[in-house]
Design brief:
By secondary structure, the chain is α/β, with parallel strands linked by helices. Helix content is 37%, strand content 13%. α4 (107-114) crosses α5 (132-141).
C-alpha cells in the first residue's frame, strides 16, 4: 500500500473539486483553484487597487465599472454551433410549439410529454403550486428528450430566473412584463455577463449540459430562448422598446390577459388592436412573435403555447377510442346511475 503523501491528498482534493463542478455542485472554493497568489495584496496593507491596476491588466487607471473592458475567459470557441434545437429552429424562421405541463410533478408524465413531439415543454410555474425541486427532478429525468426544458416563471425576479436556469431551462418565458425597465431586469437575470447579470453558482444545468459543444457556461447565452409576455396595457405602451432589447428572442401576445386587463375579447376591434401592437413591435424589432396554438395560421406568428397534459390525455384517449369514446354503460342504480 502506497503511503499517503501531500501530493496524493492534493490530487484527491482536485479530483473531488472537479467532480463537484461536473455535477453542478460547485462552490466558490471549487472555482478558485491554485495555491499561489503572486498578485495578492500584502498582508495588512492597502494595495490601492481601487486607484491603480497591476502591470499587464487590461483595465488601467482608477476602477470604473461603466468603462470596464470585459475579459475573454468565458468566450465560446470560434465556430461553435447552436446546440439548442428550439433556438436553431426559431433562427431559421420555422414554427415551434410548446406543450404545457400544468399540474404534473412526476418525471414519468413529464418525460412522456417531452417525447410526444413538441419542440419544448412549457413547465408552468406562474399559475401552478409546483415547487422548483419537482421541476429539477422532472427535467433531470430525460434531459435530451425531443422537447427541450422550458418554463414560465412566476414573475420577473432574480431568484425565480436563477432557479430556472440552474435547473436546466433552455426556453425561459417571463409573464406580465409591464415596462421597458422590467424587461431589462428579466433579460439581466437570464443571461451571464457581459449580456446579463446571471450569477455563476452551478446547478443541474452544468451536469446535464456538461458535454455540449463549447461548454455550457461559454455557450448558453447563444442558446437560450428568452420570451417576454406582453399582457397588460402598460406592457403595450413599451412593446416597441421591449422587443428591441438585446437578448430578447421573442415577444408573446398574451391572448387571455390582454383581454382580461383591457375588458375585451377576441374579435373586438379594441382587442385586435392590442394584439396588432405586439405584432408590430415584433416585426419592427426582427424578433419572433408568439401566441396560443389556435393562432398557428395568424400572420407572422411562429411560436405557440399548446394545451396542458390533461387536455393531451383527454384528446389522446378520444382519438384512440374513436366511436367507442364516451359509450359507458348506464346502470339504473348506484353511483354511476344517471342523475
Amino acid at each position: 500500500m502506497k503511503p499517503i503523501t501531500t501530493a496524493l491528498l492534493l490530487s484527491a482534493a482536485l479530483a473531488l473539486g472537479a467532480s463537484a463542478v461536473a455535477f453542478g455542485q460547485a462552490t466558490e472554493d471549487d472555482i478558485a483553484k491554485g495555491g499561489e497568489f503572486p498578485l495578492a495584496a500584502k498582508a495588512g496593507q492597502d494595495s490601492h487597487a481601487i486607484d491603480r491596476a497591476p502591470a499587464g491588466a487590461v483595465n488601467q487607471g482608477k476602477f470604473d465599472m461603466d468603462k470596464w473592458k470585459y475579459g475573454h475567459a468565458w468566450d465560446a470557441p470560434n465556430g461553435t454551433k447552436i446546440w439548442n434545437p428550439v433556438k436553431l429552429k426559431m433562427m431559421q424562421g420555422q414554427k415551434v410549439v410548446a406543450g404545457t405541463l400544468f399540474a404534473a410533478t412526476d418525471p414519468e408524465t413529464y418525460c412522456a410529454m417531452a417525447g410526444a413531439g413538441y419542440d419544448f415543454i412549457w413547465t408552468e410555474q406562474q399559475h401552478s403550486a409546483r415547487d422548483w425541486k419537482d421541476v429539477e427532478r422532472m427535467w433531470g429525468a430525460c434531459p435530451t428528450a425531443k422537447a427541450v426544458p422550458g418554463v414560465r416563471v412566476a414573475y420577473t425576479n432574480e431568484r425565480e430566473e436563477q432557479h430556472a436556469m440552474d435547473a436546466g431551462a433552455l426556453v425561459l418565458v417571463i409573464p406580465t412584463v409591464r415596462s421597458y425597465e422590467e424587461a431589462i431586469r428579466a433579460r439581466d437575470w437570464a443571461y451571464f455577463p457581459p449580456l446579463g447579470k446571471r450569477s455563476l453558482g452551478g446547478g443541474q444545468a452544468f451536469s446535464i449540459y456538461a458535454n455540449v459543444p463549447g461548454g455550457y457556461r461559454q455557450t448558453i447565452n447563444d442558446n437560450l430562448v428568452l420570451i417576454l409576455m406582453i399582457e397588460t396595457l402598460d406592457g403595450l405602451k413599451d412593446a416597441d422598446r421591449i422587443a428591441k432589447i438585446p437578448g430578447v428572442t421573442a415577444i408573446f401576445a398574451a391572448s387571455a390577459d390582454l383581454g382580461n386587463f383591457a375588458g375585451t375579447k377576441q374579435g373586438d376591434p379594441d382587442y385586435e388592436r392590442e394584439i396588432n401592437i405586439v405584432h408590430d413591435a415584433a416585426v419592427k424589432a426582427g424578433v419572433r412573435l408568439c401566441g396560443p396554438l389556435a393562432w398557428r395560421d395568424r400572420p407572422d406568428f411562429t411560436c405557440f403555447q399548446g394545451g396542458t397534459e390533461m387536455a393531451a390525455i383527454a384528446k389522446g384517449a378520444k382519438d384512440e377510442l374513436g366511436p367507442l369514446a364516451n359509450t359507458q354503460g348506464k346502470p339504473e342504480v348506484g353511483p354511476w346511475a344517471a342523475h
